[in-house]
Amino acid sequence: MGSSPVPGTIPPPERDLMQDPNRQLVDAQTLKGYRDILPEEMIFQNALIERVRRVLERYGFVPLDTPCVELLATLTGAGGEETDKDIIRFKSREGEDAGLRFDLTVPFARLLAQYPEQLRLPIRRYQLAPVFRNDKPGEGRYRQFRQFDFDAAGSESVAVDAEIVALMCDVFREAGVESGEFEVRVNNRKILTAIMSAAGIDDFETQKRVLRAIDKLLKIGEKNVRLELGPGRTDDSGDTIRGAGLPEESIGKILGLILTTAPTRAAVVDALAAGLPRTETAEQVIEEMRELDRCLSGMGIAEGDAVFYPSLARGLDYYTGPIFEAFLKEAPEIGAVFGGGRYDNLVDRFLEKKIPATGASFGLDRFTAAFKRLGKTSVSPTVTQVMVMSFPGVPAAHLLKVASLLRAEDIRTELYLGAPGAKLRDQLAAANFRHIPVAVIVGPDEYAANQVSVKDLRAGLSARAGIQDHEAFRKAGKAAQQTVGLGELLSTVKSLSS
After folding, report:
1. pTM for this one?
2. At what angle do helices 280-298 and 158-174 cross, to 10 degrees?
């Protein structure tokens, strides 16, 4: 019988797992379609999030959050048949049918119905959270990704739709994308309805097939869309895609209208007005588009930043009015980095009354992938401003005191705690590798004199660039270093960080 451990101590393990002959290593890998985000990209994303947050709050949007798990009944049917297939489903511990949310708009619609007193209309909200889709992964496309969603509920005004478009433009500019480098494409779901009516297409199932073909125009081109509207086609993989079976006259009418282009938004609307029959639906949507153009022009949104695209067809199962997609012109292969529209009928899945709403969202991972393609993600791989390092013989308590003096002034400071007895050159190499700009060095002499050495690592690297002579290299590095008393530490570091 073994002896009992001394109270207050942790008993030693019965065996060393590292020496276990039956121990098997687990492969360090992620599931397909999921990914880790390492510090450099996370730092870029956090900076982007802060910029987007500032823009949203400038427009009066407030933050909220919802669970990533919803009752399955909340999710199914909201995004259409294709979206339903991509829902990751499971049973809760209580046996309830549940699923991981595929977007943030559907949970917002539930909130509006569930909290009518707390979320008084009209309301503007934003949310950043992970969403999940069990679809095919690709570049910038994952099964889990963080989505930034912003919506305005409680108003039918076209002015709110215009603000969503303007907000997207402002987010691009705040993120460092200039006018001319991005394009927000705008259409109206009712335009598509009016176009199909002009082509004599009244059957609902045929309309859905036509809209799905139009939605693929950018991906497959006019020739293949024409085939999908007519007899059908065989795609690159050899699969047969059933056509809508439209006569050539109807196909010509549809393509002639959806491919309408003009130098200005107003001119696009004029061209559509001339080509559409004078029905009540057509006249109503033409006036909505004219009003949207007037609102965008009133906010100074350039013609090239927000463009009317009659071929834009997205979210066909729940968008009811204006629809939006935004692209980075130099990264078209990434696809749309923003998407959204008006969804006046989504909340009535939960209520007996209509709550109009409009909004947009972007996937943070796809946005980042596009920025990488443009070379706009150059940021420091660390948030640390100062690294405190030392020679042997300096007490850890003193190093912590030095670090605390800096942290008390909101200077982001890290104490080097790598391998015990690490040489100073290794500590400096670690700081340079992570682009930390300032090193505070404490040796036995500095400790005894209540001093520190402050080294401007950026200046040191710059001064030594191209120097081949060892002595000259050493002196150049020394020139960027100064020894000061602890009382001068803060002012010295601040002068180097400014």
Report:
1. 0.86
2. 40
